[in-house]
Amino acid sequence: MDPSVPKLEVRDVTVRFAGLVALDAVGFTVEPGSVHAVIGPNGAGKSTCFNVLSGVYRATSGSVRFGDAELTALPPHRIAALGMARTFQNIALSPRLSVRDNLMLGRHRLTRAGFVSAGLRLPSARREAARHTERVEEIAAFVGLTPQLAMPVGLLPYGVQKRVELARALCMEPRLLMLDEPVAGMNGGERREMAELIIAVRESLGISILLVEHDMGMVMRLADAVTVLDFGRRIADGPPEAVQNDPEVIRAYLGA
Ligand code: ADP
Ligand code: MG
């Protein structure tokens, strides 16, 4: 495991929207190097939780710590700079740009000089750009996107676009990777491929992965620990086998 990966601690996080408690004093801990899943039926608060962790929403109360850093009041770019990279439930790529250019944009937070706008005039900027290009190609190969590097993202099948999104998040060299419903809308084969890829990321990079997912089967195969939300409340937390057999979880999922 990468020794620089800190623990993520979510404590008593409440998020209120007008007239609605989307998260009600939710807490959990993502252990360094683990795959932690947050699951629950539609409307449970999964995306809200994700948006709080990545700084898109501000918690009404509670705290989120990543190692020594308190994230609660930080804007998204500061949270990303601490090494927390996310994907979106709906694809957020630039469809007319190539896979390579989308991945280069993912490296933006790591660039000192802003090499794209500097027009590559300085030798140091050119060397830096070459390093980034090399790393982008490595990550593309890891994710299985080498053949598509020059293709516009918008022309690729949905399952491949989701892989580009994952690759772009990896281009930020995260210490915690946050995936919002990575297999939503995918067919069986694409789901299996994505699951294998997530396992490969965890095993070869040693980073933590926080997975928000509706698909129970996927979570049971991948996760070391699972937090279950229902109507904004945490109804279970623990290893997948225990959570899967919890009567309250079964009730929430069956809607009984
Ligand atoms: P999930 O991702 O588990 O399906 P969400 O976190 O998207 O659930 O939503 C949880 C609840 O919060 C839902 O009732 C949803 O309608 C509400 N909600 C989410 N975002 C907002 C928002 N920006 N404004 C008002 N209500 C919201
Ligand atoms: Mg959601």
From TrEMBL:
Residues 8-256 form the ABC transporter domain. PROSITE patterns: ABC_TRANSPORTER_2. InterPro entries: AAA+_ATPase, ABC_AA/LPS_Transport, ABC_transporter-like_ATP-bd, BCA_ABC_TP_C, P-loop_NTPase. GO terms for molecular function: ATP binding; ATP hydrolysis activity. Pfam families: ABC_tran, BCA_ABC_TP_C. It comes from the Bacteria. CDD domains: ABC_Mj1267_LivG_branched. Keywords: ATP-binding, Nucleotide-binding, Transport. GO terms for cellular component: plasma membrane. This is ABC transporter ATP-binding protein. It comes from Planobispora takensis. The lineage of its organism: Bacteria, Bacillati, Actinomycetota, Actinomycetes, Streptosporangiales.
